[in-house]
Amino acid sequence: MAMPAAKPLFDYPRYWAECFGEAPFLPMSRAEMDLLGWDSCDIIIVTGDAYVDHPSFGMAIIGRLLEAQGFRVGIISQPDWHSKDAFKALGKPNLFFGVAAGNMDSMINRYTADRKIRSDDAYTPGGIGGKRPDRSSVVYSQRCREAYGDVPIVLGGIEASLRRIAHYDYWQDKVRRSIVMDARADLVLYGNAERAVVEVAHRLAAGETIETITDIRGTAFVRDGIPTDWITIDSSSVDLPGRVEKIRNPYLMTEEAESACAIEKKEAAEQASPVLVQKLAVLPTPKALINREITVLRLPDYEAVKDDPVLYAHANRVLHLETNPGNARALAQKHGDKFVWMNPPPIPLSTEEMDYVFDRPYARGPHPSYEGAKIPAWEMIRFSVNIMRGCFGGCTFCSITEHEGRIIQNRSEDSIIREIEGMKAIPGFTGVVSDLGGPTANMYRLACKDPNIESNCRKPSCVWPDICPNLGTDHQHTIKLYRRARTLPGIKKILIGSGLRYDLAVRDPEYVKELVQHHVGGYLKIAPEHTEAGPLSKMMKPGIGTYDKFKALFDKYSAEAGKEQYLIPYFIAAHPGTSDEDMMNLALWLKKNGFRADQVQTFYPSPMASATAMYHTRKNPLKKVTRDSEEVDIVKGDRRRRLHKAFLRYHDPANWPLLREALHALGRSDLIGNGKHHLIPRFQPAVADYKSPKRTNSTPAGARAPAAPGTAKPAAKRILTQHTGLPPRVDGAKPWDKAEENRAKGFAKGKRPR
């Protein structure tokens, strides 16, 4: 089976409005439209982010791509959503509204992992919070519909992409309907939307109606029923969920339900072994197994998955099995009397198409209407270059693979170099490129060795539980790119700021040497996420031994270059599958290796992620889901989540009372004391007054994280910990004395005990 063919982005005839040429910035007002000579916009993009004309911002990529197709594109950025008036600012679009919440999910943007409101928003001028509504995609779509009821609404972006089926909503603690239903959008474009949005625009411009556009890959929409010429397969025949008792078949029509109840009760009594969760009247035929282009997998209905965790976990598992563009089938999920239909994922962009997208005439800065106000997200990526898309890691807590796919889409080396050369003209550029990467820094031009195997593969990850033997791990293309970029005239330093997949890096020591000796600004961020096998198996992450191998290479090549450099490992607290003992062992590892975390990353259940399915259902969708299948330990409740975070910050005196109580409960009172083998001291100081260097996540004790070139040095911060009372006495413990108090204060400051 080969990857299906796709029409290249640059093969479409340009729309007649190409005569207006390219805009310096896509217009955000009628005055700007007048200056461009426009009487109307063909397409209006509504976004929850500030408009930054840079290829790291979704509205800029889609807008400039559509402009290159000849369309007139306007931007409505962060509109006042309380009425429809702001959505009329540019008039009525001729073709459609393109709606997106922004580069981030609006709920994750607004709330912390503990559901507390954030005070800031990195994608807003001045970093001000509250400039977008909760569930922005839904609210914006509704206001567009109120403004111009007959204009099609095409919804995209990561927020919509991760909500295309019935999904668990962490903030409401319930299963919500597909966003297609709630937003009343005509189409949802999921995943990388360039190919789909270009085809939608040209077909609407040619006179087609939005209702007839049902055959584009990477789209989801509502339809009345399953077409008669399609072959329908019950999802439970693809992955058997196991026996379900006392549940009505959710696929049966209402008029069939009464007679079905008697049949199902009889079957349940007769069968002692697991049976299908749902059964269709017609079983799959051999043709269904061959002709995937007209085969649809029917997922359990919304009404079923919202009430049954096993069915939810099953649906999540099947969804993830159908994500390879080479072999994925269409999916359908009934909501009431309607079906949400999802066509197979989009075909990845070729290198030529990626260059076409990234070589647009971006202004590479915020819209002038912001009058120089700082936009934190823009400041962070201002001098970075995106070299690829996608990730084949498949980490269960991450949305990158789910949104961008696991087939890497690469830019050409020449296109990347052109972008770096263009930076020299940007005000404020000092010769330092802050990042040359993407979702994962070292997956550039890595792929399956055999395209036919790649098209047929259904594995959720190419690197777990071990690196697939069919995956190419030669980093020569990346090494060549790094060397060419760092020797460009006027370039002082090329840093790598994107996350690094170190289990891949250790397969190519030459890459590690190039990276460590030329592209690390004092510290390098990597993400082991944990040290224990239990949580790592639920994350689909490699064992900590791989980190040790990478650290050995990192230290070796740093020493050879005469540089003092540090690894900054990231860890997650409260991930599904993590026990209290796992967190204790992680804390011991951190202390043994001299790491003291300032910022703690807590598991955040994002929609559609496999780890979120674990969190909601307590089932493991990485394996076959049955009533009796593996139960996953879930960290819920404020107290237990605080405890897991406290283990990551074992050095903070404010956490010691909670940790002492937990260690007693775990039978590990031996870890309380002032020796090298102890985790926390016995004495609780009334006030711990100490200075601690500001760190990104974890920094070796006593070592200040070096600042990247061109940035301010991290400032020390003063932390005051209030008196929380003495800990429970340990049998036979000596009375508190001044020496012990001083040792505890030294512990808080990061001094090693004598």
- Low confidence ranges: 242-288, 688-736
Q: Please give the number of β-strands.
A: 27
Distance between the termini: 65 Å
The major pleated sheet works out as: 10 strands, mixed
The Rg value, from CA coordinates, equals 27 Å
Gross geometry: globular
Q: Quote the average pLDDT.
A: 87
Q: Name the structural class.
A: alpha/beta
The CATH homologous superfamily name of the domain at 9-223 equals Response regulator
Taken as a percent bin, the fraction of beta residues is 5-15%
Using the coordinates above, name the CATH class of the domain at 9-223: Alpha Beta
Query: Helical segment tally?
Result: 26
CATH-defined fold name of the domain at 9-223: Rossmann fold
CATH architectural designation of the domain at 9-223:
3-Layer(aba) Sandwich
Spatial sequence of strands, sheet with the most strands? 3-1-4-5-8-9-13-12-11-10
Percent range for helical residues?
Answer: 25-40%
